[in-house]
User: Fold this.
Amino acid sequence: MNRALLIVILLLSPSTVVAADPFSNARRLLDRYCVDCHGSQGEEGKFRIDQLPNLADTPEAAERWGRVLTRVDAGEMPPAEAEKPTPGEAKALLDDIKDALALGAAAYRTEGRSPMRRLNRLEYENTIRDLLGVDLPLRDLLPEDDTADGFDTAAKALSISPVHISRYMAAADRVLAAAVIRGPRPETTTTRLSYLDPEEARLWRPKSFFTNGNRILIRPHDGGLLFFAETDPEYPAILRQFAAMTRAKPGRYRVRVSASTHEAQGRPLTYAIRSTQSNKLPEYFEAPADKPAVAEVEHHFRAGETIVIAPYLLNRARLALGQSLKLQKGQQEPKGLAFGLHWVEVEGPILNAWPPVGHQRLFGDVPLQPIRELPKETALLSEMAKLRNSPALTPGSAEPKADAARLLRAFLPLAFRRPITEEDVAPYLEIALYELEQKASFEAAMLSAYRAVLCAPDFLFLFEEPGRLTDHALATRLSYFLWRSMPDDTLRAAADRGDLRKPEGLRRETERLLASPRASAFVEDFLDQWLHLKDIDATMPDAILFPEYYERHGYGQQEDGLLRASLLAESRLTFADLLASDGSLLNLVDSRETYLNNRLAEHYGLPPVEGLAMRKVTLPADSVRGGVLTHGSVLKVTANGTETSPVLRGIWILNTIVGRSPPPPPPDAGSIEPDTRGATTIREQLLKHQATPSCATCHRQIDPPGFALEAFDPIGQARTNYRTTEVGEVLRDVKFDTRPVRYRKGPVVDASGQTNDDRSFSGIREYKQLLLADPEPIARNLAAKLATFATGQKTSPADAKAMEEIVAVTKPQNYGLKTLIHALVQSDLFRNK
Assistant:
């Protein structure tokens, strides 16, 4: 059949006929309810209903119709004083617009909905780790990633420049050098280390940095040390012997620490095991009273990296027991409460396989030979040249050309995350063969080819063809979504079999990925960006107003590391629990349960919780806690460190939870600075600000949710009064570390408000119930955030129908979070480019 005739027949078939005006039904309702203000007789907001296009077949046309959809769906239009459509008419209007937008999108999404995108820094580092088994801080080598639409997975934010290419080449060289082995398998040893070793004597010898006159604050005891006070931050308890070990043999080590609490009156002390180079430690442990217990951490230690052991809030614990470091007459050293550090044991380097996975993937079974046995004319890489006369080993092939082709054919499918052809292999094999012709060693030739692979677009970008994703493209999208890294062997095998194109196969693999401990990478990264938890350290609370946030004040001021870790853990564990149990995502707004440990319960003023371990706790019936809105992590990142702003917190709730972003402020809107003196409250300042007509409309949406969160201070504590620095009641009876606090009691907090649709609330508990009265926008918003994070492209009004269908799947499960993930993954939105 003639191709042109076939196209005409298809276009005219009933299933493909497109109405001349798919918005015709919607337009009739808009003409009835909206055209008086947005027509030829009125052009409010500079928006004309009567000039809307007949088709949404361009991004510009879709954007204009999308504005109508958003405003009507949010109930903002028609305005309160105007005649409104009935609920049935409003639903019909919205459904017609959604259908027409989805239909029109096909005309301008010819290359698919999601653009090709580059791996971001986290994904690059994780991919290198899983591909070559190399655990290096590669993010530090690469330019900072931009964000768009709230996420650093957004394609439009992930540009590439000559600087990127230069850094990728440097990173590839570093990675490949670390992956190649140079000698026999290192012996894994277990070594008991003591702080009484002369190498560590700086901590306890007389006249050391930790003596104060004749008061020895750290002294030997029963083969270990007793800490009577916290160490100076400039001279921490660094284990130098371990640094020498990692300098010689960097790698993964298991560290065990034996500690107890001395003269504790039955109470344990907390201590931290920190790293000198990595923020993946500290971890916190309890030293039991008068009986040693062993704590264990496992960590990849870089060359020269070691641990620091630090008692936590030891000085405050001593004060709580009524003890002092002041010596009595004739007393040479302190008595009473002390942290006892007995010994440290290190095991490593720990190797799961030999040769390591990286060397196996680069050189397979190619035998090793001493570098010094290579012919003298062999060209070596600079690092190898330094080892010319050493016993160091290098892969040496008897059939270099054949081995080069074989190794590249095995490596490229892993690096490119798809099946390959000989055409894919050719340019990289050509590099290796050219180097061999130039007398390069087999290792040098192969590393040149591998370097090109790790800088190739097929490795650095996520390629997807228009239309339905192939099984391997789908495996890649799923793995980077839920594991933040490349597919593993099992997922690749499922793709090889064609299982992922079948709903049951895709569901099975999605369930497997979610059940894996590796899904914690998704939980952490998604929450860091969606809830803005990555900004936890963007501001530091004022130490005068909020001394509780710090372990140490004054010289060497230091934030409370355990409190910070606990704040983040509460949010992550809450989300992970809902994901594992398919709990209702509405519990993210309000719940009678949360995760606490002893430090966080104390911080929140809740009933005591035993121990450092975070555990699920049922909240008191009258508690204001429950849901991420009242998590200290969120309350901190939505404050400026000195005071709170209902504007910032209100915008956060609208953007993050409700999904109704207010328009940007007009250029002349000005700003409001918090008054820490206490002369005026933030509410009083905002009421004056709202007197400006151009500001009032937006602030009617923004301020109410922000006012609800005024019941919490910048470090997440509930409050009834503001704290001030100059004006207010002096609090002589309120003490911190035995000294009166330096802040004053300010005005009473008013956490009441009235929403934009005239519903009143007296505080955060009532406000949360108002949010939950209409759960679908909350579910749609989270679905949209997940879709943006997973696909690299923000959802638009053209996707509204698809998002509605995804959420509809979750409704019978009370909006189960895991059900939502499965519904998203099964949707055309996820399975198509």
The chain has a mean pLDDT of 88.
